[in-house]
Structures are given as C-alpha cells and as structure tokens.
Amino acid sequence: MTKSNLLFLGIQGDDNLQSMLVGTIMRKIKSRTWKKQRYFKLQDDFMTIWYKSKKAGNTHSTFSVSDLEAIREGHQSEVLLSIADEFPADRCFTLVFRGRRGNLDLVAESSEEAQSWVRGMRKLIENLENMGEREKLDQWIGDWFKKADKNNDGRMNFKEVRDLLKMMNVDMNEQHAHRLFTTADKSQTGTLEDDEFVLFYKMLTQRDDVLRLLNAMTFDGFLMYLGSVEGSIFNPQWLGIFQDMNQPLCHYFISSSHNTYLMEDQLRGQSSVEGYIRALSRGCRCVEVDCWDGANGEPIVYHGHTFTSKILFKDVVTAVGNYAFKASEYPVILSIENHCGVEQQRVMAQHLNHILGDKLLKSTLDGKAPSRLPSPEDLKGKILLKAKKIGGLEESFNEMAEDSQTGELSDEDEVADIEEENQHRESVRRRVKKSKQRLSKELVHFSNFKHSRIHSKSYEVASFTESKARKHLREAGADFVHHNSRQLTRIYPSGFRTDSSNFNPQEMWNVGCQIVALNFQTAGEGMDLNDGLFRQNNSCGYVLKPRFMREAEKFDPETPHEREGYQPVVLTIQVISGQQLPKVNIKEGSIVDPLVRVEIHGVPMDQAKQETRYIDNNGFNPVWYDTLRFTIHTPELAMVRFVVEDYDKTSRNDFVGQYTLPLICMQQ
Predict the structure, then answer these.
(1) In terms of pTM, does the model score above 0.85?
(2) Which end of the chain, N or C, is less packed with Cβ atoms under 10 Å?
(3) Does residue 472 have an active-site annotation?
(4) Which residue intervals make up region (Disordered) (predicted)?
(5) Which of 490, 497, 502 is nearest to 527 (CA)?
C-alpha cells in the first residue's frame, strides 16, 4: 500500500525530497533570544516531518504535511523580522498551519538548503491536493497502521489491533474483533501485513447504512460519491461567483473582522500582522487598525490603554498590501481607528500612499461626489479607507489621502462604550489639525433612523456596539432594514468582551447590517456562522442580501409572515450515520457517545434546535436514523448548523465538530 502511494505521488526521483529524507539541521526561532537548533527529517511515508533537539534522549515532535496551509519565504513573520539583521531572508521561511496552530519559523544553514525545503514542501502539499478520494483513504488507513504498529516491524499482532480499535473510538466485543482478525490473517502468521490490514479495515467498516440505500451504484462507487463535491450537502452550483456583483456596497453582507491585529484576548494578548494575513486569507474584506502615536515618529497599532503588545502601522499596511487580494479580488475596507496626533497622521498618510500605491482608493471613481455607493465590481483590486472625517465628501473629494486623514476622531472607543453601557456618558475629545476645524459631536453622532433618512449621505457609515444595535433592532427593526438598504452599518463587540468572545452575528444580518465585525481569532458559534455564510459565492467575502432587504419595501424580521411573497419552507433532515469521529476526551479508554444537534439560525421565529439521541460508546460508525423537522419562515436568511457532541450525563457535552451553511445552499 505504501509503495503504490509513492508511485502515485511520483516523487521518489525528486532531489529536494531526497535531501529532506536524509535530514537537515535548522534553527527553530521563537523570539529574538530563543533560537535553537533542531534536526528536521522527512519520514519514508512522504507525509510526516519529524524533528528533535540535537541533545540525545530528548523527545521528538512530528507534524503531517496535510496540516500545512502554506510556506512563506523570507522575513514574513514578526519573529523572523526581529532577527532580520542576523539571518538573511534567503535562509528564512515560515510554515503556516491550518486552523489555530501557531506558525513554525525556521532558519536553514544555507540559502540552498532553505530552497530545497521550501520547494520540497510545496511539492508535497501540491501532491496531497491532487490526490483522489481513494488515495486519500489509502493514505488515511496507512497513517493508522503506522500509529498502531508500535514495534515498527510492518506487521500488527492482535494486541496492537485491540489498541488501535481504542484509538479509533471503537468499543468492540473481543471475540468479534478476534474473528475479524483471524479472517483477515490469510497467511495464518498471527499478524496482519499491509494487504491483510486493508482487508481487516474493510470488514470493520462494512456499511449497512449505505447498503440499504444502494440501487444503481456499486458500494465503492457510492462511497466515493459521498466523499466528493457532488455528494456534499453544499450545492456545488453556489461555490463559485454566482451573484450579481454590480449592486451598491450596502446591498451586500461583508465579511468583517474586529481588532484584527489581536491573536488572543483584548487586554494582554499578542498583537501581530499574522492576524491580518489570516483574516484576509479567509476572505475577510474589512479589517480594523487601531493607530496610536509610537516612538521615533512611527505610528503603532495595538489595543489602547491595555497591555496588548504593539506592532508598527507600516508593517500592518505592508501585510494588507501583500495579502488583500490573494483570496478575493473584491475590495478591502481598512477601518481605521485613529488616535494619533497630527504629525504621525501625516506619517500614516505617507505609508498608505507609498506602500499601497494605486491599490489605495484616493478619490471617487469619476471625481464627483456619488449619489449612491459603488459596487464590489467597480472597486475590484481597491483598498478603501473608512475613518471619521470633518465635513462632507462634497467639500473634499479632490483632497489626497494625506489631507483626508486630518481632523479625525476615533471610530470607536471601548472605554466610552463601557461607560455608555453603564448609562454614564462622557464626551470624547480628540486633537484636530486646524483650529477652525472643530469636530462637533453632532457631526459624528447617530441620532435616529428618521433623522438619518433625511440628512445622511450614502457614503457615511454608522458604527454601533452590539448592545446599541440590539436596542435599535428591537425598537425599530423595519427602519433599521430600510436604513441598511441605503447605507453601510458596522457592528462591533461590546467592550466587556475582554476574552475576545463573539456575539451572534445572525441577529445583525437579520436587519441587513453589512459590516458585522467579529473576533476572527476565536472559534465558536459566531465564527462558525460567519464562515458558513461566506462559504458561498467563491468565499469572496461579499454575499448579496435578499431582494426584500435591498428594496424600499418594508421587512421586519420580527414579523416575516407579513412581507410580500412570504413562503415558508419545511426542512426535513434524517441523520443516518457518522464515521470515524475524533476522540475528544483524553482519558485512557474513553470512547465517544455521539449525538447530532441541528440548529437553525435566522429571524426570531426561525431560531430552533433539535437533537438525535446519543449512541453509547461508538465514535467509529454510529448509526441513528433519527428524523428532525423544521418550519422556516425566512429561508433566504436561515443558516443551518450541524453540531456533533460527545454526550456526558454529569457535565457539559464535549464539542466534537460542526458544519454550517446557508439553507439556500443546501442540496437534497
């Protein structure tokens, strides 16, 4: 099996991979002072990288090539930038992992060795991406075989098989397991070799739930279909760009990040350009930059009045310039919260102009003040600035970015938010450039939707904390929807969320708020819904709002049945089975008791949850056949979230996994 995989990969003759098999000493860098030598080596499976300290007896570490998302060459992380004077860029590279695992910064002994690893790793990632479903399955089985073959003799005895079943979440009667083992042991040696183990695995994974459904396809063919794009619950028709991208910006939900520079909490966490790279790589189209006066005349970015670490504004702008359009060609909005004095505002303007160049939108598209917002299509490849400014666009659309940065007030001030949420108001004062330009509170303060409808301009953006937005949507939901059909609204987390937790974005989407800013670094329901909504339309970060939210007709999410064209939908889901669920409880011998919860997130009438029963001690191939039914009143706004949990009768269930998608993107 391993041999056929290698033939398929066609990589045995590759010089870079051959030298990786031999191994290399490289420095692992964690900070300017932590630089330690490690021996790195590619394993014979061409899938695992093994590394250990040069000191004898130290434990080793491994990671799989499948865990890697990208390889960045040169000084492309804060850590490597901090040692740029010591190690040249051509010896440095960064391994970026999927999910929330930290990056690995490495320095090779020579530029040739660095190149060898960079090219070799990219080749392995590319091969993995080109693998078919069958090869992926073979690879997966091979990985389990290696984990269980404790003495590395290429065979598995019955004890190793028993341990493997526990690792794989199978609680199986010992006699039954022994019967399967003996049947698979064709050579009658008391051990299983490659092909015998595959046979054992096939018997173990016999799928009666699938056999019950088979009419026209072979068993293997149907399994391959289930694992393919065509067999996915997400309709492949909606994966590419399928929406009209020529509507004004306010007609789209826009994937948006809050305090993008933070990697952890809001009080003591690390600030990093990595936050911008990760958010933009996930299709985020609105990122936030909090600017403060820094040393040596250089503006810095951090969460003001806290102990979060500081990074340079120019490094943030460079990262945005480099990564803005890798995942999507549609516009990126830089939401600038400006606390800088006039001198460093000028430096900010210089950096923006110099680093972003033509990508930076410096004037309206036709040089006139617009009557409506331009479209994502109009603004392809452009970076927009969103910040507070004195006077209207009409007075100043000819000004360059430098002048448009003057006289700014911070867009949000979390201390002020907290005070406001405590029913205590204090004026927020900021220095401005010219004495004649006094920034009156009225210019920047939102009063109500009626006032806004008469006085505000299409290019003005209202910013609300989550609690203020909730107050508006409770008191005037239909007016909020109408306001958002003409203008952009940004919602951001309460200042009390010091742990970087997220609010539920759905209630903000229900009234058409476009820029719903979330803490991208925090996994959980909020980001699951965000990832689910923006999975459609080529994950480009823009999703067209339903027609009834873009037009002047009245829509109130509290009374969806009153809208024109109201048509509820009945969603029926039969949860049949699950395969190879991961272990979540680290207790020895513990096996998952899985249940599936289906959640509907949408307008208040649609919010619902239903669960299957839990299956005792079977994370390997649990079968439910439970049917769940929901009536959905506004299908255009509904999100469906599937959650798998490990049932626990004495404490909170453990989270196993989830998948979220818009109801309209589901296929039968």
Answers:
(1) no
(2) C
(3) no
(4) 400-433
(5) 502
SS3 652: coil
Q: Which residue has the tokens 């979390």?
A: 414
Alpha helices in 229-376 (DSSP H): 274-281, 313-323, 342-356
| Burial of residue 521, with CB atoms counted within 10 A of its CB: 0-12 exposed, 13-18 middle, 19 or more buried | buried
Which of these, 338, 344, 348, lies nearest to 314 by C-alpha position? 348
Q: Which of 303, 351, 482, 633 is catalytic?
A: 303
User: Catalytic residue among 75, 176, 178, 258, which?
Assistant: 258
C-alpha span between 466 and 511 (Å, rounded): 13
Residue 583 burial (10 A CB sphere; 0-12, 13-18, 19+): middle
Q: pLDDT by residue (tens digit) across 408-465? A: 334 454 444 544 444 332 333 333 333 333 333 333 457 788 878 777 788 889 999 9
How would you classify the pairing of strands 286-292 and 332-338? parallel
**CA atoms of 71 and 644, how far apart (whole Å):** 32
Locate 547 and state its tokens: 């027609």
Which amino acid is present at 594?
P
Give the helix ranges, DSSP H, for 29-85. Answer: 78-82
- For residue 102, which amino acid is it? G
End-to-end CA distance of the chain: 36
Residue 258 known to be catalytic: yes
How far from chain centre, in Å, is Cα 568? 31
CB 551 within 8 A of CB 536: no
